[in-house]
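Q: Here's a chain of 240 amino acids. Please give me its 3D structure as tokens.
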Amino acid sequence: MRTTRLYLLASLLLFASRLWAEPQHCPTETTTVPITITGTLEYHPGVYAWYGVHPAQPICGQNVVQLGFDDSTQFRQAHRFVGCEVTSTGNLFVPDTGYWTTSLGITDAQIKPGSACKPGDPLPDYSAVPIPSTIKRYKVVATYNPKTFDFSAQAFDAAGKPLSPWQTYATDTGNGARDLQRMFCADGFLASDPRDATGQPDLQANVDPDYPSAIEVALPNDSIVQLSFTCTRSSSPKNN
């Protein structure tokens, strides 16, 4: 009898652990599933930068689940736990746009590091770096690789002196179809004079009509894009 009870207890514990590790139901294109999963936190940089949790066992057939955070502060702070075992809670769903990289994602994600985690540094907040008031205009030379989604840039003042860190002066975002990029000046600056440096006849680069601080770039193919544009300080407090 004792052996039977121990066997039943072990079976119940195993069943409970499986429920904790995996959702009871997988989401569909129209439904979400509340979930708690534990796994190693990964970070993938680039224009479509994302975090993912790699659980010990696949979740609904997927080895990595992407995390979606509520704001940029949470996104930056999550970097402290990359490489650690974390427990993440949220709503499991099936992404339908290119803003998400994996086949499954978690919205409203919250993460808690394991007890063995040694936190590192958060991602830097380049938008908090002040731009000297003496800088009225600067030039950006930006490079974007559509295959790797990597964006980098150089910024120069009116005298041609490099400005650092460049991430304070130029940023980039993509659209859900991943065929359009917006290359932004810093807050408080207006974009102008986009010039293609790669000689692509089909490349279209214009000041974005909805975001005057950005250059809208339509990507004709998978070739690397390099272009320059000018950023001029605006007299209006809001121009983005």
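Q: Can you summarize the key feature?
A: The CA atoms of residues 79 and 234 lie 34 Å apart.
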